[in-house]
Design goal:
By secondary structure, the protein is α/β, with parallel strands linked by helices. Among the domains are: 331 residues, Up-down Bundle (ABC transporter transmembrane region fold), CATH 1.20.1560.10; 73 residues, no CATH class. Strand 7, helix 17 and strand 8 form a beta-alpha-beta unit. Helix 2 packs antiparallel against helix 3 and helix 7 packs antiparallel against helix 9. The protein is elongated and about 115 Å long.
């Protein structure tokens, strides 16, 4: 019962992406089958007319009816084909959009959770490689529609055939053939069920193998510079040969099993078809119906029995697909557990938002080690704070907690006398502008990138671009803020350098006009002198906002009011540049003198 609910829930969800798709597909199937049965019926009538020697006028009328009927049915079907293709495109796009929307709506800690990422990859593998999950469900629903429409159309021929067979005495041979036919059909259905269950388990194995292959191959890019500089081609080729052997072994095993499992259902299906022919020929010889009906009834029986077998096979496939649908639905069932808060963040013209870390510790999900330990730190309005330390010392984790992308494992963060968890989550995020090290620009007009919105204040955006040093490049852009960044969607787009992209990201942070400005190593790819210049210019532009500069280099430290030195997840020193240099045994003294040549 629970499994049925899984299928129904997935189907309701999938249908909601475009409710027009399945009705249009049903109409398409009706006209497709109407064409087949119309041609089958008329072909039988023409053969019977020829056999009985009817006059030519009647034959011409029959042929004209076939041509006219086929033209009308196919014209309507062609229009429906186009409508179905369009509806399917909308369905798939909306499904992808819903999946991405779910990802965007997840708490950030869920996005970074390895188990959630693995679940997302597994769903993609099931859909794109094995065609299980919602793709298999859609195909199964379509197959059921096709088979049921077939049975409805064939029902008319069934009544006609039974009526004709009832006109002649029932023969012992006919009874034997009918019993044999039913037995063969039952065995075909049984073996199809069995085959689908076994094959589904095998495809699950292939999906796991392909997932592993894709993950491992990301580290061995044959077109990479490293593979050429370090002559890794031989090593990479050896690895690919090894995995190809494993790949071939898995696929050979699965397809061998598939071949063996298909023998029985295919054999009984062929035997069923043979018995259908024998029954029709037997009753035709007994005078139950005219010679042309052999074409009609054999075609009907073959299609009808095939549809009955396919229905049971599809039901078996649906049963095998349930495990994949559960995986798919489990992604949408991930619940956000970060408390959203309800306390309004006060709109303050003086930007007075004092924040304090009180004995804050944090560790990531699945990790036994603390990324941060016992952090005590206060931030005052208008203050400049430099957060420095070696790679992996906890600087970025500190910012993630400050911006409430994560909540502390232990301790609390206070803003204006209240725990930040109590504030409305979206309003709290609005007080921060952050330029992360791995920031992204969108392949959209420059104005959209600066404003992060559909509309923008042109005067403000242009002013900020000039202030961050993008003015000379801006003068070269014929369309100004309307100029698309990159050429992904527009051939008139412009390619920008890494330094230019950083300046746009800085302008974006300033455009938001948030009380807190945070730079999290966005200039890590620049040389220390260029980085120092950017920090110096940016600090002048920031004005009375509270600014936090994060780096493992020390270019931002001289003009900051306070420097927090992180090491192995702890704040080991806190003070001004001059104060920290007085401690010759301290970490800051060590870092500064290791880099002093770049700043003197």
């Amino acid at each position: 019962m629970r499994k049925n609910r899984v299928m129904l829930r997935a189907l309701r969800m999938y249908n909601a992406y475009n409710p027009k798709y399945f009705p249009l597909y049903l109409l398409q199937i009706i006209f497709r089958n109407a064409s087949f049965y119309f041609n089958l019926w008329m072909s039988a009538e023409i053969v019977t007319a020829l056999y009985e020697g009817r006059d030519q006028r009647e034959l011409f009328i029959l042929v004209a009816a076939v041509l006219m009927g086929a033209f009308i049915i196919r014209a309507v079907a062609a229009g429906l084909d186009r409508a179905v293709i369009t509806a399917q495109e909308i369905l798939e796009n909306n499904e992808a959009a819903a999946f991405n929307q779910k990802t965007l709506s997840l708490d950030y800690d869920k996005i970074e959770n390895p188990e959630v990422r693995q679940l997302r990859r597994k769903i993609d593998e099931n859909k794109n490689i094995n065609y299980y999950g919602v793709i298999n469900m859609r195909n199964s629903v379509q197959a059921l529609m096709d088979d049921l429409v077939n049975l409805v159309f064939s029902g008319f021929l069934f009544v006609e055939m039974i009526t004709g067979m009832a006109k002649v005495p029932f023969q012992g041979l006919g009874l034997i053939l009918l019993i044999s036919l039913c037995a063969c059909q039952a065995l075909t259905i049984y073996f199809q069920f069995w085959e689908n269950e076994k094959i589904a388990a095998s495809w699950d194995e292939i999906g796991s193998m392909m997932l592993q292959e894709n993950q491992l191959s990301q580290g061995y890019r044959l077109n990479g510079m490293d593979s050429r500089i370090y002559l890794q081609q031989k090593h990479v080729s050896k690895w690919y040969r090894k995995f190809n052997e494993y790949h071939k072994k898995v696929y050979s095993k699965v397809y061998k099993k598939k071949f063996v499992l298909e023998i029985a259902p295919k054999a009984f299906a062929q035997l069923t078809e043979l018995l259908s022919y024998l029954i029709i020929i037997c009753y035709c010889l007994l005078g139950a119906f005219p010679i042309g009906s052999i074409i009609k009834y054999v075609g009907y029986l073959e299609r009808a029995l095939g549809s009955i077998g396919d229905i049971f096979g599809t039901v078996g496939m649906c049963k095998s697909n349930e495990r994949f649908l559960e995986t798919y639905l489990s992604y949408f069932d991930i619940r956000n557990d970060m408390y959203q808060g309800s306390l309004a963040v006060e709109k303050r013209s003086d930007k007075r938002f004092d924040i304090e870390f009180r004995n804050v510790s944090f560790r990531y999900a699945g990790s036994r080690e603390y990324a941060l330990r016992n952090i005590d730190l206060s931030l005052k309005v208008g203050e400049r704070l430099a957060v420095v330390g070696m790679n992996g010392s906890g600087k970025t984790t500190f910012i993630k907690l400050l911006c409430r992308l994560y909540d502390p494992t232990e301790g609390e963060i206070i803003m204006n006398d209240f725990n930040i968890r109590k504030y409305d989550y979206k309003q709290y995020l609005d007080i921060f502008s952050v330029v992360f090290q791995d920031y992204n620009l969108l392949a959209m007009p420059l104005g959209n990138n600066v404003a992060c919105a559909a509309d923008w204040d042109g005067e403000k955006a242009e002013r900020l671009l000039r202030e961050v040093g993008f003015g000379d490049r801006y003068e070269e852009l014929a369309n100004g803020l309307e100029t698309p960044i990159y050429k992904n969607f527009d051939t008139d787009g412009v390619e920008i350098s890494g330094g230019e992209a950083q300046k746009i990201a800085l302008a974006r942070a300033l455009y938001r006009d948030a009380p807190f400005i945070i730079l999290d190593e966005p200039t890590a790819a620049l040389d220390p002198i260029a980085e120092a210049e950017i920090y110096s210019n940016f600090d002048r532009i920031v004005g009375d906002k509270t600014a936090i500069y994060i780096s493992h280099r020390l270019s931002s430290c001289r003009f900051c009011d306070k420097i927090a030195v992180f090491h192995e997840g702890r704040i080991v020193q806190l003070g001004t540049h001059e104060e920290l240099l007085q401690d010759a045994q301290g970490k800051y003294y060590e870092l500064w003198h290791a880099q002093a040549q770049y700043y003197t």
